[in-house]
Amino acid sequence: MSYPSSNKKLKVAILGAKGYPYVYGGYDTLVKELGERLQKKGVEVTVYCHRALFKDRPPYVNGIKLVYTPAIEKKSLTQLTHSFVSMLHACFSDVDVIFVLNSGNGPFGVFSKIFRKPTAINVDGLEWLRPKWKGLGAKYFFWSSKLATKLYDQIINDSDEMQRIYQELFQANSKVIAYGANPALSSDATKIKKWNLEKEGYFLIVGRLVPDNNADIIIQGFAKSSSKRKLVIVGDVPYQDDYVDNLRKIQDERLIFTGYVTDPEELKALYHNCYGYFHGHEYGGTNPAMLKALGYGCAILALNTVFNQEMLQNGKHGWYFEKSSNSVREIVDKSENSPEEMKILRETSRSGLTQKYNWDHVTDQYLEVFLTLAKK
Question: Residue 60's pLDDT is what?
């Protein structure tokens, strides 16, 4: 699907992530994959970038227009103030549609309403339940998410379960468009030698080391197991944090903390060659780290949540553990005693990437939304 050539170009602004081509998390990946494909389909794409993260600030990269906006550089204010400035700028620009990421930006829809700019917002996960947002933070995210359903023209959820929750909590209609995946059949196995690892000689965790990803429960459960394999923990947080410090204090020679792995080929090799991939994410919808695990052929051991059940087709493409270290220990021992079943999970995981997780299909769905909004 592409914009009719006889008409003027569709202009779409994207804001709420860190920018382009910066890739650090799920939103940044969405901006990159969606922005590049929209641009190739003849859409004029503008991406708002967090100025402090970009030393070089070219006006265009790969045909995508970049606008660098400032923010108040404080942990809890950075994202919101960056989005606030970006939204105002976009409202004064000549774009046809504004696409916003993150339900925390819900209140800024008031500006697009005043300026009569059509908007869509991808609200992502249940931010108000995340342990890092206690008290006021949790109240803000709940209020903000509710407000988003009133102020934006199109709400987008990334999973069927998230759509159901938004319908029940806010009586809001939404469209489900998942994240996409980039499956790969092979990787450079020598890349894991950097950590003295061998093929299928380790379990893997990938994600930010924050409480809602439950790395603590997985590590404690693994430490109780009799596994001879290692547990590789990929990820960190970009600030001083007691939670991470306590994880690193757990005494077990089988644990390997790699910190951030920014080389995509190294990360791919870590996924490809693991014996099992642990997924402890609790409050999201479609999770990019899980999509990588499916696309890279991992045997997946996931926390039992409605979102993980949806992504793994209710156990077809993975096993589940409950939120306790004993449950983790049991699933480690089960996987150690079931090498054939683990091999089958690895061999069949890519078939879990149905059409809904194909980036071209994802882009077509977004383009349809933007064209509909532009016509209105």
Answer: 97
Domain coverage including residue 28: 11-180+358-375
Residues 220, 234: one domain?
Answer: yes
Please name the residues in contact with 306: beta carbons below 8 A apart, sequence gap of 6 or more.
Answer: 161
By the 8 A CB rule, do 275 and 342 touch?
Answer: yes
Is 344 contained in some domain? yes
Domain check: are 86 and 174 in the same one? yes
Beta bridge partners of 358: 181
Q: In the prediction, which pLDDT does 4 show?
A: 45
CATH number of residue 130's parent domain: 3.40.50.2000
Report yes or no: 302 and 312 within 8 Å, Cβ to Cβ.
yes
Give the per-residue pLDDT at 207. 87
* In a domain? residue 24: yes
pLDDT number for residue 128: 64
Residue type present at position 224: K
For the chain, the domain total comes to 2
d(CA 64, CA 139): 36
Kind of pairing between the strands at 175-176 and 154-157: parallel
Q: What local confidence, expressed as pLDDT, does residue 77 receive?
A: 80
pLDDT of residue 129: 67
> What is the pLDDT, as a whole number, of residue 234?
94
Letter string b/e over residues 311-321, b meaning 16 or more CB atoms within 10 A of that residue's CB:
bbeeeebbbbb
Predicted pLDDT of residue 251: 87
Task: Tell whether 201 and 144 lie within a shared domain.
Answer: no
Q: Left if phi > 0, otherwise alpha if psi is -120 to 50, otherwise beta: which for 80?
A: alpha
Residues 96 and 228 in one domain: no
- Asked if the structure places residue 2 within a domain, the reply is no
Task: Please give the pLDDT value at position 136.
Answer: 80
202 phi and psi angles, rounded to 5 deg: -155, 155
168 and 267 share a domain? no
| Total count of residues recorded for the chain | 376
Which stretches of the chain drop beneath a pLDDT of 50?
Answer: 2-6
Regarding pTM above 0.70, the answer is yes
